[in-house]
Amino acid sequence: MDNKYRPIGVFDSGIGGLTVLKEIIKEMPNESTIYLGDTARVPYGIRSPETVIRYSLENTHFLYSKDIKLLVVACNTASSISLDSIRRTVSIPVVGVIEPGAKAAVRTTRNKRVGVIGTEATIRSSSYEKSIKSVDRDIEVYQLPCPLFVPLVEEGWVEGEIATMVAEKYLLDMKDIGIDTLVLGCTHYPLLKGVISKVMDKEVTLIDSAVEVAKEIKEILETSDLKKGYQGGALREFYVTDLPERFVIVGERFLGSSIEHIEMIKL
Question: Which member of 42, 179, 186, 255 is catalytic?
Fold first, then answer.
């Protein structure tokens, strides 16, 4: 198969990576995609680094066997721990979710005060802070775990009184710090953009890592002469390691479109 026609592979520990896939499809609708959600072993954030690397490599090998042309690690935990191991294993471009979001935050901030919200595991790893400071060490980074955001999103409570109350509880202190840029450091959080925007000042710019990942992928494909163009239809394949029915129900909300071809696999 011509390299341009090969699909883009995307994996996550579960459903959240579908927000990344959504932006990839929006940015490059003609590209075929294969998504793997390791729903049998979610969440990765409670695992040891060695286990996260093992899971990530198993996901990588499965997608690589599908003759993908680029791999997206659409999981913050795996991106912070496994990228180097994955890149040593495969001979295709590998894109994580942390660096694109961090670089966008550096470009966006005017007062050099950047907030990062994410799961406890992502915040504990300080991956976004390290990535931001590797570009500009003068930027002050304020990190905050928001563990209740994930269950809110998966239950569909992305607006209304409960979502607003939880967001205010988490974010009002960060608002008082005076950040002008806030990184949504979890793939679930874009679904809460509306609520988060209401709680934060209008002057605060939200950085959606999913959007930045899609832009970076497009740039890589164009510079590597791997971009498909307009020929032929785009295929959408979905694989999970457990609970395909729940994946479809919740996943269609994340993706904003129907999930038709889905298969349960064992890694």
Answer: 186
Strand order in the sheet with 205-208: 140-145, 113-118, 181-184, 205-208
39 plus 123 within the same structural domain: no
Q: Is 146 a catalytic residue?
A: no
Catalytic residue among 75, 83, 105, 152: 75
Close Cβ partners of 74 (under 8 Å, ≥ 6 residues apart): 10, 11, 12, 16, 17, 20, 21, 97, 187, 210, 213
Q: What is the CATH number of the domain that holds 254?
A: 3.40.50.1860
What pTM does this model have? 0.91
Kindly report whether the peptide bond that precedes residue 43 is cis, defined as omega within 30 degrees of 0.
Answer: yes
What three-state secondary structure class fits 264?
strand
Has 75 been annotated as catalytic? yes
Can you tell me the distance from the alpha carbon of 260 to that of 177, in angstroms, rounded to the nearest whole number? Answer: 45
Q: How many domains does the chain have?
A: 2
Digit-coded pLDDT (tens) for 204-259: 999 999 999 999 999 999 999 888 876 668 999 999 999 999 999 999 999 989 99
